[in-house]
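User: Can you predict the 3D structure for this chain?
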Amino acid sequence: MTQFGCGSFAMSSRYNHCVMDGVAVREFEANLAAQTRGKDLITVPNPDRTVFKARDPPQINHQHYEYSKPIDGDISFTARGTRTVANTSSLQSRSHLFHISLQRIADLKNAALKDGKLKNCTTFQAIAAKVWKARSIALEMEEERISTMIFPVDARKRVEPPAPAGFAGNALIPGFARATVRDLKEEEFCVLVEKVKVGVERLDDEYVRSGIDWLEMNGGVPCRIDSFSLVSWWRLGLEEEEFVWGRVKCTVPIVVKPGLVMLLPGGKEEGGLYVCLDLPEDQLKEFGRILLED
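Assistant: Here is the predicted structure, written as structure tokens:
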């Protein structure tokens, strides 16, 4: 906690993602804010994760491209889109925010729907498809390589029975979309949006449990070969909490690691959302060009 001369506060917190996901963090911070105001807990935490246990025996019924088997060393996706044990790029990287206005969001959704192949398109689907295309091209990946975009999805209500109310753990399951870089360059925008849409819709109870069983058998991690993670904070609601000192003005990550792209809420006046990522300068410029082009 840091107090500034103007009377405002900055509060930082750190969580182990193996223990808590964004929903659990939001509920924790809502409880914390209520406690500072002398109020009771808003949500009673429930750590029971019985519904997320692997089956006995495990039943792997799907091809799980969203996971990678563990290997010696830590494979990461470098700035140039190659496999390596560590990011050895000599180019200077920096984090940057790209604002996507409400009008820009509407234009992207209309572009996805204009030929009638899709009946609907959400904001996340449109933005995710555009980010996927822009980042994969900006990193100058070879056209025949498959680019995989991972996006965490809350599985609390996707399993049967659902997770208990107030589940205070990590219930995120990685959805994914994958395509060759050539397809990302040449396919119509609606095709990319459809791949994102399918990536979310495939996560029913059976698929989620098949993935849990896969992890039980292989002890793997989210796919990290020619991939990146798109994490959405813009509707998480962290900026809506009210502490005894006042309402939160904004919530941002302190560090955005390479291989991570975050969607953050826009300001209360400007609306829209922000795309936040870390790339070398030249790739950042190309990413922005593709992201904002029609």
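The longest helix spans residues 123-138. The first strand starts at residue 2 and ends at 3.
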